[in-house]
Write a structure and sequence with these properties.
With 136 residues, the chain is mainly β. The termini are far apart. The strands form 2 sheets. The protein has a 5-stranded antiparallel β-sheet. The chain is 6% helix and 38% strand. It folds into 2 domains: 8-56, no CATH class; 58-136, Beta Barrel (OB fold (Dihydrolipoamide Acetyltransferase, E2P)).
């Protein structure tokens, strides 16, 4: 079964189109210069409507996580249990996604470095996930 597909509209299309090209673009506010996620029409910090799209690395650190045992959609049934996390990107935005290679234990992943993974989800759409980054 395919995973649920995002609803693409004129506000978030640049984000979803870039993922299909295996790139991540987010909005940066022209007023306060903060990077924001999810796509929107005005900055949640200063309410400026001067938002510009720009490519980001997708690298970040885990700030929260949980293990999913009962998925919210049958498209994820074959993947349980899996770890879902809140990731603070290097560029400052908070974004959420599955952490693919995370151990399914009580081990805390807080502060662990992650890197992006682009996952086809069916019907031509790509979803963003993460994996633990190798420490060098």
């Amino acid at each position: 079964m395919n995973k649920p597909q995002p609803v693409v509209n004129e506000v978030n299309a640049p984000f979803w189109n870039a993922l299909s090209e295996q790139r991540i673009v987010l909005q940066t506010c022209g007023g306060c210069r903060k990077t924001v996620f999810y796509p929107r029409v005005c900055c949640p910090y200063c309410q400026s409507d001067s938002l510009e799209w720009g490519e980001v690395s997708g690298h970040g650190r885990v700030v929260s996580h949980t293990t999913i045992h009962r998925p919210h959609h049958p498209g994820f049934d074959d993947e349980v249990p899996y770890v879902f996390g809140a990731i603070e990107l290097t560029e400052g935005a908070l974004i959420y996604g599955q952490i693919l290679d995370a151990p399914i234990t009580d081990v805390s992943l807080l502060g662990q470095a992650v890197e992006p993974v682009f996952q086809p989800s069916g019907q031509g759409q790509t979803l963003l996930a993460f994996r633990l980054a190798e420490t060098r």
